Amino acid sequence: MLKKLYHQFASPKTYIVLVNKMYPYVFYISLCIYTVALIWGLAFAPADYLQGNSFRIMYLHVPASFLSQSLYLAMAIAAAVFLIWKVKLAAYMIKAIAPIGALVTFIALISGSIWGIPTWGTWWQWDARITSTLILFIMYLGLISLHSSFTNFEKADKFISVLVLIGFVNIPIIKKSVDWWSTLHQPASITLTDKPSIDPSMLYPLFFSMIGFSGLIICLVILSSKVQIFNREASKSWVKDNV
Amino acid sequence: MFIIFKLELFKLRKKLRAWLGPILVFLLITISFPLTIELASDDLKNVFYSVLWIASLLTVMVSVEGIFLEDYEDGTLENFSVTNDSLFSMVLMKIFIYWLLIGIPISLLGTFFSISMSGQMSSLNVALPAMLISTYIFINLFSLGNSLSLNKGSVLGALITMPLLFPILILLGKIVLNANFGFEIYNLLLLMLGVLLLIIVFIPFIISFIIRTHLE
Amino acid sequence: MFNFAFNSFNDFIYMDGHGIYVWSVFCIVIVSVISMFMFYKNELKKLKKKHFYE
């Protein structure tokens, strides 16, 4: 019975039907949550006593950087699934997530460097976390360019999954580098085990903004994966009914 | 395995410009660097390690460009992948030969230059192990990049895997920092040795998978 | 928790001098996300047209 379940989920057709049903709910709910969180964070949260009002960029920067790492993790899982079980849907997902991951990493880098101007006085610094995020951005761009340089799509899928798995070594470096070396970027204020070191009135908009932004990016991933699936499976008969 | 070693050694030794050229490039960079800056300034001694490592990076990138190209075009790679079932050991030996003929001379020359620049023999135990290990890691990573763009022959693959070098460069930078302040560098060298050992095992395996995919 | 943190609307825009940074980041994020949405909706529309007329 379990085999039937995951054989069903490995088919693009079931995926498209499921996603078509879910999409409006995910989109509107996450849009509401994100708007509420942004308005709360930008207008209603009290000003930080050290940084003044520019800490409000946190509500835009933290979800983006968290998502850039999570999207890479999702790509790595999809790459492993593709290489081990040869599920084609996983390869389509890798190709779908890559441009969106690049967008989110770009947002994280830009917002981080603009935030750095009033707080640290400089808009760039070669410390470990920032440089590793730049490497992550370049890896996303490299994935997109590698896939589009091949005409044979099966080979391109295998290469892109190998590259994703090799580049996965970067993610623990990003996550842990603020603990290992004392650098310019501040350490994590929210961990799984300790009490958060940030005031609750600033924390709640942050949570909602993370949930809302993740939901919006998931909607983008859904749209991008639909484009990928329809492009790659254009010759199948079910495409005409569901597109 | 020893037969493959002798075969690859023979192949590379014959192509004189494949291994002598990069050594001369390295010599050129390390000689011209002090010439273009004032010779006796103090800053030069601190910066010289970084110059050595950037020079070895560029040299390895230039030299590893054709590592699989000739074998791909005349069919040796197909031969090995079909009959011998040891594409892994062929790639391993190839990378090892490149390190023997290019990496070790570069490390020796670089150590010689660092001793002459800093004027004391203690830079021997900073520069020599670091360069030996880092040239081997660079050769591995750049050959991985070149195997990705095998049929096109372009440098796209090497450019794509270049971001993977950055952790190694960060480690090397910390070695420079610690060496200049007189701290212990052995823990960082051991970390790099560990990375190297992991890479020696995994990279030929990955490269043989990529080459098999190319040849389908 | 829910009082408006600024005294007037002008204060909200200016934010004691940090307003340029906050609002520029805000604009970049909103513009890029909306343009990605429009790009993908466009692609889907093109695909729909391609398959409808087959």
Summarize the structure.
The complex is a heterotrimer of chains A (243), B (216) and C (54). Chain A is 77% helix and 0% strand. By secondary structure, chain A is an all-alpha fold.
SSE arrangement:
The complex is a heterotrimer of chains A (243), B (216) and C (54).
Chain A: H1 2-9, H2 12-44, H3 58-85, H4 88-120, H5 128-148, H6 153-167, H7 170-180, H8 200-232, H9 239-242
Chain B: H1 2-14, H2 16-36, H3 42-63, H4 69-73, H5 76-84, H6 87-118, H7 124-148, H8 156-161, H9 166-181, H10 186-214
Chain C: H1 9-14, H2 19-52
What does this structure look like?
The complex is a heterotrimer of chains A (243), B (216) and C (54). Chain A has helices at 2-9, 12-44, 58-85, 88-120, 128-148, 153-167, 170-180, 200-232, 239-242. Chain A has 243 residues and is mainly alpha-helical. Chain A has one domain. The two termini of chain A are 30 Å apart. Chain B has helices at residues 2-14, 16-36, 42-63, 69-73, 76-84, 87-118, 124-148, 156-161, 166-181, 186-214. Chain B has one domain. The model of chain B has no long low-confidence stretch (mean pLDDT 82). Chain C is mainly α. The mean pLDDT of chain C is 81. The A-C interface holds A 42-47, 52-54, 56-57, 60-61, 64, 100, 103, 106-107, 110-111, 114-115, 117-118, 201, 216, 219-220, 223-224, 226-227, 230-231, 234, 239-240, 243 and C 1-6, 12, 15-19, 21-22, 24-26, 28-29, 32-33, 36-37, 40-41, 43-44, 47-48, 51-52, 54.
